[in-house]
C-alpha cells in the first residue's frame, strides 16, 4: 500500500504542474505493484505533460493508462484510464503513427466496460471521440442511438449526436426534425427581458446581431460572412458581432471582422446568460445563429427569446428544432416547397444561392488538365474523412475500377486513422490507387489551394456534402461531381454547382455519378475546355458574386421586419 502522505504529496505536485517531481517522487517512494489506479493515471499524465517528452515518455504514459484500467476496471479510475488512453493516444498517434496500437487497446477496454458505464456521460463522450478517430461508423451509430433514444441528460451529447446523424443516410429528414424537437427540453430557457417588437419605419436603423464560435484563423465561415456584411446598406443596418471565440489580436481574419462591425464583443469567457443580457441591452432586432449543433453548448442563447427575430444561417445546414428560431435561410435547390414541414423554422428563400464566397487573396491562373500530359487521371476530395461514408467509398471505388490508370487523392485537415480508411478501399481492390496526403505537408492555406492544381476532377462526398471544399475547387477551376440528396445538408453541392452554371455535374443517382466521372475521364479535351470555362467565368457566377448576394440578403432582412408588421 502506498502511504497516504506520499499520495497526497504526489497529487499536490500534479496540481502544481510539477510533472517531473511527480515522476521522481513516485519512482522513489512507491512500488509499481502497490500503486492504485488513480495514482498510475497521474504518473502517466505526468510523463505526457512533462517538459520535452521523448517517445519513451509517450510509451510509458500510454502503458500507464493501460495498467490503470486493468487494475481497477469497474471504478471511476478505470473510466479515467480509458479517457486518458483515448485523448493522449490520439494526440500522440497524430505525430507518431505506431502509437495507434494503444487506441485499439482502448477500443477493447471500451467495449469491455460498456455494461458498467453505458449511461455515463463521460463514457459516451469518449466513445464518440475514439470511434470517430478509428472511423468505426457502426459503433458511432450505436452510441448515437443510445444517446438519442435514451434519457441522457446532456445537452452537449445530444447536440453532438444530432449533428453527427447528418453523416448517415439511415435517418430521414422527418426523423431528424423529430430528434431536434425532442432536444429542446434538454436546453435551458434562460432569463430574458420581455420582447417589445418595434414598428419598423423607413428611416429605422435595424440592429443585426451575429453569434459565432468560429470567428478566427481563416475559418471557412468568414469567407461567407465578411463580404455579406461589408456590402450591406449601412444606412439601414448596424452590425453587432458577438464572438464566442478566443480573442487574438494577431489574427488578421478576426481583426478584419472587427473593422467591419459597428460593435464587437469578445465573449468566450461569458456564460450564456451573460451573453443574452448583452444582446438584449444592445436591443438587437434580428439575431443570427451561426453555430447550430456545431457548437451546441451555446444553443441555449437561441432556445431563449433573446431578440424579436432569430434566424439560423450558414453554419448548420439543417433544422434546430427550436420554436424560438423563427427562420432558416435557404434557396430553392436546398429545400423544396413541399418540404417545409420537415423543418421547425419558417423557410426564407434567397433568390439564387443561400451563401456566396468572397474568394481568396491568392492570384488565380489557368492550369491545364494534368491528364493531358500525364499517363494517369487524378480524382480528388479534400473533405473531412467523417463525410466519406461507406456508400461514398463504394461509388468512388467503382469509378477507380472503371477508369484505367486512375488515382484518388484524399486530404483532410483533421485526420482520423487513415490506415483504417485505406483498409476500406482495400476491400474493393483499389488500395493502390488511393493516396492520403499528410496534413503536415500543408503549412498554410495557399499550399492547400495550390494542391488542387494536381487534381483533374473533384468528387463530392454524400450524404453530407462538402461546402467550402467545393467553392475552393471551383475557384481553382476544378469541376466537382455532386450527388443530389434528400435534404438541405445533402443538397448543398447541388445548390453550389447549379449556381455556378455547371448543371451537368449534378448526378441524380449513384449510377449517374459514376457514369459522369468515367465519361469525363475519357474525354479529356472536353474536360479541359470545361476547366478553362471555369477559370474565365466562375467569378461572375452567383457563388462568388458577393455584392449581388449581399443585396439579396439586404432585401431579405427588410422582408423579415416587414412580414411581421
First-to-last CA distance = 75 Å
Mean pLDDT: 92
Structural class: alpha/beta
Shape: globular
How many beta-strand runs?
13
The CATH top-level class label of the largest domain: Alpha Beta
Q: Please describe the biggest sheet, giving its number of strands, its sense, and whether it closes into a barrel.
A: 7 strands, parallel
CATH architecture of the largest domain: 3-Layer(aba) Sandwich
- How many individual domains? 3
Summarize the structure.
It is built from 22 helices and 13 strands.
Molecular structure report:
By secondary structure, the chain is of the alpha/beta class. It has three domains: 4-117, Serine Threonine Protein Phosphatase 5, Tetratricopeptide repeat (Alpha Horseshoe), CATH 1.25.40; 206-358 and 548-563, Rossmann fold (3-Layer(aba) Sandwich); 370-543, Glycogen Phosphorylase B (Rossmann fold), CATH 3.40.50. Helices cover 45% and strands 10% of the residues. The protein contains 22 helices and 13 strands. The protein has a seven-stranded parallel beta sheet with strand order 3-2-1-4-5-6-7, covered by helices on one side. It has a six-stranded parallel beta sheet with strand order 10-9-8-11-12-13, sandwiched between helices. Helix 11 (220-230) links the parallel strand 1 (206-212) and strand 2. Helix 4 packs antiparallel against helix 5 (76-93), helix 6 packs antiparallel against helix 7 and helix 15 packs parallel to helix 20 (510-521). The chain is globular, with a radius of gyration of 26 Å. The mean pLDDT is 92.
